[in-house]
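For the sake of transparency, this paper describes our internal protein records without simplification. Such a record has a labelled line for the sequence and another for the backbone structure tokens. Nothing more is needed to write down the fold, since each code stands for a local backbone conformation. For reference, a complete record is included directly beneath this paragraph.
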Amino acid sequence: MTETRGTPAGSSAAESLTDWLSARSDAELTELLRLRPDLAVPPPSTMVVLSGRAQQRASVSRAADELDTLDFGLLELLALAGAEETPMTRAELNSAISERALTGKGKVTKKAVDKSLSKMRASALIWGVDPISVVPAVIAMIPWRVGRALEPAEAMTETEISAALNALDTRERDLLETLANSSPIGRTRDAAPGTPPERPVQRLLAAGLLRWLDEQTVELPATVRQVIRGEPVFDPTTLTAPVIGGDKLKPADVNAAAAGEALELVRQCENVIAVLGAAPAPALRAGGLGVRELRRVAKTVDLDEARVSLLVELLSAAGLIASGTPDPAPVSDNADEYWTPTLAVDGWLNASTARRWEVLASAWVDVPRVPWMIGLRDSTDKPIAALSEEGRAPAAPRDRQAILGLLAELDSGQTASAVEVSRLLAWRRPRWSGRLRTFAIERTLDEAAALGLVARGALSSPGRALLHGGDAEAEMQSALPEPIDYILVQADLTLVAPGPLVPELLEQVSLVADIESAGSASMYRISEDSVRRALDAGLTATELHAMFASKSKTPVPQSLSYLIDDVARRHGRLRAGVAASFIRCEDASLLAEVLASAVAEPLALRALAPTVAISQAPLREVLAELRAAGFAPAGEDSSGTLVDLRPRGARVANRRSRPASRMPASPSADQLASLVRTMRAGDRASAPGRGGVRTDGSRENNAATIALLATAARDNSSVNIGYVDAQGVATHRIVDPVSVGGGQLDAFDPASGAVRRFTLHRITSVSPVDSGKK
């Protein structure tokens, strides 16, 4: 049964945070530990420990990251009233809020204030309802100068600030850059009255780009700082959130655009996999993919380098490519490891388009990397390489969740610009504003659009499902156009697929034609080489004629029929097999021509009969050399059947993916409830009259605990100890201390019949046991 303790939530009788926490219900304490999981590691033994941990600066800083500008605005008013020492009544707070609204910081409703206070109270950043007290450490987390909010709103617009900045000389601009990238408060003698007006500080004060605080102090206004740093421009102290006013689009149109991006993304990833499978890219010594190799891949797949950078990052995040020693190994020995498709890629290639998209999109949402940073300069002024360690960003998944989560709050089909998103996020998470700059959000939304999560400025239905744990694959499947089972063959030997093809037809078309342009409608070109490729794969001229006749909605041009027949007539007259390799030909004169050609020596050809010759070279090499010499051989197996010798590409074993975050997993609700019960037990065990080393009823201290244990060890007497183990389970047991030191107690435990070791800081109470009652 859940235990409920102390005063109701509206009471303010507690004299300290410890007393206030002790008076909370078990449900409220469980919620506190859920909101601030770092408080539970390691498990606190008592409310005193929990209270002390909740006031530590590092813990408070993590909790403050979740506060919005309204929360900080209320904290500022509490700080100005000295609520960290003397509680502030609710009436005084309401009066301060009204006064703040008069400075142009925006009016806020009582409901919003109550919600904000409840949120901070649940996180133990403030305590008490009326009056209200503040945890001192949280005041230092306010992201602006305390007192700034009570000053009038800044009058200069973004356009005016930009114009004023453009008129500055180098010295003045450098001064503002220094303040923008450090503390906005600057100390200078040039702020004093009577300073010559041509001095840089005076000129900046006159231009409104600096604010005068006193004779030796100036401040960079928040809006000027935002313009210089490329952040969204708005008064960060305003109490009301910015409004997003985007267009309203039809969800079906948004999903259709997202499906088109998904089709293109999957196709391009297939091409990159094929390129890396055919020629694995050497990995840099420090990890990553070199610029030269990235350019090679980009040129081969006919894409720009930025797009290929995103693709390889997605493939790596999804476990479809990895660095290692590929099988088969590349001919070159210049590198120890190569970026190569993994064994998992074959299953991915055989999956549906929606499934392949879902794998890539899920990987992007969770990967702790920032693909758009590739090519930018690092701290040493070197370009960041794709897949390199410099591209890691542990906060990236959290930032993406914040950006996409904001779009998910809007109605389906409602758009939002990057500027609007960045401005609202900066208001909601003012301590994140350095990361969530407009430029960063623009690039993140570009990546989301490339994956089909966002389309035309709105979140797509598949993106919404992926974000909320729905069936994103099914949503994308419904958004994708239905596959078609026909093509349009044209007189110039091109064929058009007016939509995605069914898998069987796509495989045949990919064999007999080369893609020229992809999209909603793809165009392929048929050539002599592409027809020969289809014949090499085992298709016959009859099957090709039948495929075009049955699948083309347009008449098959005569030129295509002639091309197929001409290539087929020459194809396969010369046959190569495995001896290591063999060559046979019904035409003895043709085989004699081969044996007399220059290719015979490197292949070590030897005639066994007028129509048969063998070679020590592998079959794939024999076919390649004969074709290079102008012949048109076909490969066959031992039964004479044509074999498909197209290379699968190199593969490397999958590596265990790196966890997205080093933060420990959040404890479950049952674990938190158990921890609360443990703290309650610890409080009872340490309460006066519950047993201890002092006779006056006061609580024990650590020194007294050690002294009593040492005395018991010396006198060979027994003690009753309260102990909380590593799982947070509190117990009481009678033991015989043996030795005390190094933060450990070694004691004989009669219950187990062995000497056990106890950690001193986990011992919550100690009391002597009468030897006669032992």
Q: What stands out?
A: The CA atoms of residues 347 and 356 lie 10 Å apart. The longest helix spans residues 251-278.
